[in-house]
Design goal:
By secondary structure, the protein is mainly β. The chain is about 15% helix and about 40% strand. It has one domain. Strands 5, 6, 7, 8, 9, 10, 11, 12, 13, 14, 15, 18, 19 and 20 form a 14-stranded mixed beta sheet that branches. Strand 19 and strand 20 form a beta hairpin.
Length: about 375
C-alpha cells in the first residue's frame, strides 16, 4: 500500500513538472529561445541565389560614385564685349603601371553669361584595366590682337609611360564672335610645339601683330626635327577663319608646295664634340662646291632662318561627332622630315646647311 502511494506521488510530480515547463516555454521571450532555432533563421544566402530569385533592377549610383565626377569653371573670359566661361567635368585618372594620380577631363562646355551651352566636347575615360594611363587637360585664355579678340583653348593628352620628346604635342583652337555669333575658327590644331606669345600668369595670349585691317598673326613654335621654327597663322576676325599667313604656304595647281622661309628660335641646349667642320652653301638650294667652315668647341653658332615645307590643315569647324576619337575634327601643323635647310652663322660666316652630318656637327641631330 505504502509502495503504491509513493508511485502515485512520483507520477503526479512528473506530470506537474512537465506542465510547468510547457507553460514557461509558451511565454518565453523570442530572444531567449534556444540558439538552434535562431541559427536556422540566419542561414547565409549566396549572391547567385539572390540574383536567380529576384528581378534585376537598374543600378543606382552610390554617393561615392556620384562624387567621383567633379566640376571646374574657367573664366570669365571677355571676348568682343561679352563674358564666356568654360565648364570642365573631371574624373579620377586611372593610375596605370606608373601609378599616376590626379584627374582627367571627360567633358568641356563653353557657356555664355546666361549659362547657355555654345560649344561642347567630350573626352574618353579609361577602364581600370589599362596598360597606359591617359589624362586629358584643358586650359584657356583670351587671345588679344590689334584687330580683334578671341578665346584660345588648348587641349593636352598625357599618356604614361612615355618616351621623352624634344617637344610635346598639343591642340589649339581659336574661338571668336562673327556677326554676333560665337563660333570656332577651325578645328583643334595639333602642333608638336606651342604658342610662344603667352603670359601664363594672366592667362593672356598675344598676337604677333596685324597682317591687314581685319587680320592678326598668331605664331606657333613648331618642332622641325633639328630645331624649332616659327609658323605664322592668319587669324581673320571678320570671316572667322584661320589660314597660313605666308602666300608660299598655299599649294600650287599641281597640289605641291614649295619651301617657305621661316624664323627659327635659338637652341641653347645643343652640344658639339671637339673640332669639326660644316659645309655651307650660299643659298637654300644645294650647291656643288660648299664652303668648309671650321667649328670649334667655343665657336659662336647662330641659327638665322630655315627653308622647308610645312603641312597645314584647319580641320573641321563643325562640332565633334562624339565618336571615341575626341579629336576627329582636328587639323594640324607639321614639318616634312626630308626637306629641311637651315641658315647659320658660324664665327661670322653665313651659309645654309642641308646634310645630316652638318646638323650633327652643330649639335642638332635628327629627332622625330
Amino acid at each position: 500500500m505504502r509502495t503504491f502511494r509513493f508511485a502515485a506521488i512520483s507520477v503526479l510530480l512528473v506530470a506537474l513538472a512537465e506542465a510547468g515547463w510547457w507553460a514557461n516555454r509558451r511565454y518565453q521571450p523570442i530572444n531567449q529561445r534556444p540558439v538552434q532555432q535562431q541559427s536556422l533563421a540566419m542561414q547565409p544566402v549566396s549572391l547567385q541565389q539572390l540574383n536567380s530569385s529576384q528581378t534585376s533592377a537598374p543600378a543606382v549610383p552610390t554617393v561615392g560614385e556620384a562624387a567621383a565626377e567633379t566640376e571646374q569653371r574657367l573664366g570669365p573670359f571677355s571676348v568682343a564685349g561679352k563674358d564666356y566661361r568654360i565648364m570642365l567635368r573631371k574624373k579620377k585618372r586611372q593610375p596605370g603601371p606608373t601609378q599616376e594620380t590626379g584627374d582627367t577631363v571627360v567633358a568641356m562646355e563653353i557657356r555664355d553669361a546666361a549659362d547657355t551651352i555654345l560649344y561642347q566636347r567630350t573626352f574618353p575615360h579609361q577602364s581600370a584595366d589599362v596598360e597606359f594611363s591617359d589624362a586629358w587637360f584643358v586650359s584657356a585664355g583670351v587671345l588679344t590682337g590689334t584687330n580683334g579678340t578671341g578665346l584660345l583653348v588648348s587641349y593636352d593628352l598625357d599618356s604614361e609611360p612615355s618616351a621623352p620628346e624634344p617637344e610635346s604635342s598639343e591642340w589649339y583652337q581659336v574661338f571668336g564672335v562673327v556677326k554676333g555669333k560665337f563660333k570656332p575658327f577651325s578645328g583643334p590644331i595639333l602642333v608638336q610645339g606651342e604658342v610662344p606669345s603667352v603670359d601664363r600668369t594672366s592667362k593672356q595670349f598675344k598676337s604677333a601683330g596685324p597682317l591687314d585691317s581685319q587680320s592678326d598673326a598668331l605664331n606657333f613654335k613648331v618642332w622641325a626635327h633639328h630645331f624649332r621654327l616659327i609658323y605664322p597663322v592668319r587669324v581673320d576676325w571678320n570671316q572667322g577663319k584661320l589660314n597660313p599667313a605666308q602666300a608660299c604656304d598655299t599649294a600650287n595647281a599641281g597640289g605641291s608646295r614649295r619651301p617657305c622661309q621661316y624664323a627659327v628660335t635659338p637652341e641653347d641646349d645643343r652640344r658639339t664634340d671637339g673640332l669639326t667642320f660644316v659645309q655651307l652653301c650660299p643659298d637654300s638650294a644645294a650647291c656643288k662646291n660648299p664652303e668648309r667652315v671650321l667649328v670649334k668647341e667655343d665657336s659662336k653658332v647662330e641659327l638665322l632662318s630655315c627653308a622647308t615645307v610645312v603641312q597645314w590643315s584647319e580641320g573641321l569647324t563643325s562640332r565633334p561627332t562624339g565618336k571615341p576619337d575626341s579629336m576627329d575634327d582636328q587639323g594640324g601643323i607639321s614639318v616634312s622630315s626630308d626637306n629641311v635647310q637651315l641658315k647659320v652663322r658660324v664665327d661670322g660666316k653665313e651659309g645654309w646647311i642641308h646634310a645630316d652630318e652638318d646638323f650633327n656637327a652643330l649639335g642638332l641631330p635628327f629627332e622625330q
